[in-house]
Amino acid sequence: MSTSPTALVVLAAGQGTRMKSDLPKVLHTVAGAPLLHHALRSAASLEPARTVIVVGPGAEGIEAAAQELDADALTVFQEERLGTAHATELARPALAGFEGNVIVLYGDTPFIRPETLEAMIAARAENDVVVLGFEAENPGRYGRLVMAGEMLERIVEFRDATDEERRITFCNSGVICAGSECLFDLIADVGKENAAGEYYLTDIVGLARARGLSVTAVRCDEAETLGVNSRADLATAEAAFQARARDAALEDGVTLRAPETVFFSYDTVIGRDAEVEPNVVFGPGVTIETGARIRAFSHLEGCHVSRGAIVGPFARLRPGAELSENVHVGNFVEIKNAQVDEGAKINHLTYIGDASIGAATNIGAGTITCNYDGVFKHRTEIGARVFIGSDTMLVAPVTIGDGAMTATGSVVTSDVPAGALAIGRAKQANKPGFATKFFERLRALKQYGSKR
Ligand code: UD1
Ligand code: MG
Q1: By CB atoms within 10 Å of each CB, which of 196, 238, 374, 424 scores lowest?
Q2: Prediction pTM value
Q3: Mean pLDDT of the chain
């Protein structure tokens, strides 16, 4: 494998008019991550020395999204969409002084596998230019790869192809790899004498062959080249991602009762012998340890669930929810930015936000940490072996000591020492016979038709 450094040029200037969206196409998401992130992640294993993204309208959003993944990513603006060669040419100044391989790929093509790009780099060691091709089931309007044995002679765009060329099923994915100097030399010669009147990057293949350079095509599976041009494509891409993620989870030893109803994020991590019941949705940033059980209809994002924990049914774990081993979180419970220690139970109808809960603590039904005063968020610290009575309002900031308890229905506004009972509710008064008389009067009123 070639050891020379790699630079990445991502073409992302497409407005995506068929998306009918105010959002640039490459910022639409699949499995919780922008298309652009998928493309950049595929190339991450090549450890690109430089990354240049060619952007069009909506440039600022794309720049910010790219820098989330790669703080050094550069964006260059393509004002007018003059073709893929023109777009690539715009990256030249950003690659000044770079000596090594350049990989050009598209920001709207999320599924190219890292291994495929590595195979292209490996093929580059023997060839001046490497193109990624695939056997298309339905070649449609893809560019066709005209091969002569192992040598790729040229790429012909559908609009410019003869009937005979259109019968070729080996198609251009759009990913191209060449040495930096060679690539920009070839691009300088690209003209726009074609049906679209565009500067085609694909023309560099014929130009390279005319100079006696060697060009080859690496093959990948058609599924890798799936590009997104419409909302329907986006849905197809999502379905393809989910199908693969479900297979991978099953393969890794995770039990999925109804795989087709479970939705994963691009980065979901689930340990073996974990079980995920039907209709569970994972947002970004979830780690589930071995043996944990995620029950039906739960929604999790940005959280960690340790061994032996049980979540749901109908639970919501939001960013920063950290569940230690054997924690139980039951139905209609929402947890955000909170550490829940070993064996604690929060089983019914509860909101826990900006809190810590000690080991073996029991949180009664209907408990709420009142964490927000309308401007600031405040923390609730609950110790170990605490018993929080049902329907307790914990008005943060507040601390409950180890082994303390709160009476059902309490509004707790000040700290509770360890081992103490806090009662914060109106005292009960019984009025003998009141209810019987009250209802007698109301029923009489109803029967005789007068309201008062
Ligand atoms: C291109 C290829 C075709 C290939 C197909 C695979 C060319 C000339 N043709 O065709 O051989 O089979 O992709 O999907 O390269 N872009 C810019 N600026 C431009 C033009 C395009 O950034 O001026 C970007 C687009 O946003 C897109 C990518 O380059 O991400 C490809 O452009 P597109 O117009 O979709 O090319 P195709 O006609 O699909
Ligand atoms: Mg296209």
Answers
A1: 374
A2: 0.92
A3: 96
- Burial pattern 422-437, b for ≥16 Cβ within 10 A else e, equals bebbeeeeeeeeeeee
- The number of the ligand nearest the C-alpha atom of 106 reads 1
Distance 177 CA to ligand 1 centre (A): 15
Cα separation, 116 vs 16, in Å, equals: 26
CA angle 15, 47, 63 (to 5 degrees): 30
The pLDDT assigned to 58 comes to: 79
pLDDT digits (tens, 9 = 90+) for 106-153: 999 999 999 999 999 999 999 999 999 999 999 999 999 999 999 999
Could you give the angle at which helices 35-44 and 114-124 cross, rounded to 10 degrees? 50
Residues with a CB atom less than 6 Å from ligand 1:
11-14, 54, 78, 81-84, 86-87, 106-108, 142-143, 155, 157, 171-174, 200-202, 227
Q: What is the pLDDT of residue 292?
A: 98
pLDDT at res. 452: 54
Domains in the chain: boundaries: 6-225, 255-422
**Residues in CB range of 80: below 8 A, 6 or more apart:** none
Mean pLDDT of 281-292: 98
Look-up of token digits 């995920």: 276
Query: Tokens in use for 89?
Result: 């040419």
- For residue 3, what pLDDT is reported? 67
Pairing of strands 129-135, 170-179: antiparallel
How far is residue 430's CA from residue 154's CA, in Å, rounded to a whole number?
93
Q: Which CATH number does 6-225 carry?
A: 3.90.550.10
The rounded Å distance from CA 219 to ligand 1 centre is: 19
CATH architecture of 255-422: 3 Solenoid (2.160)
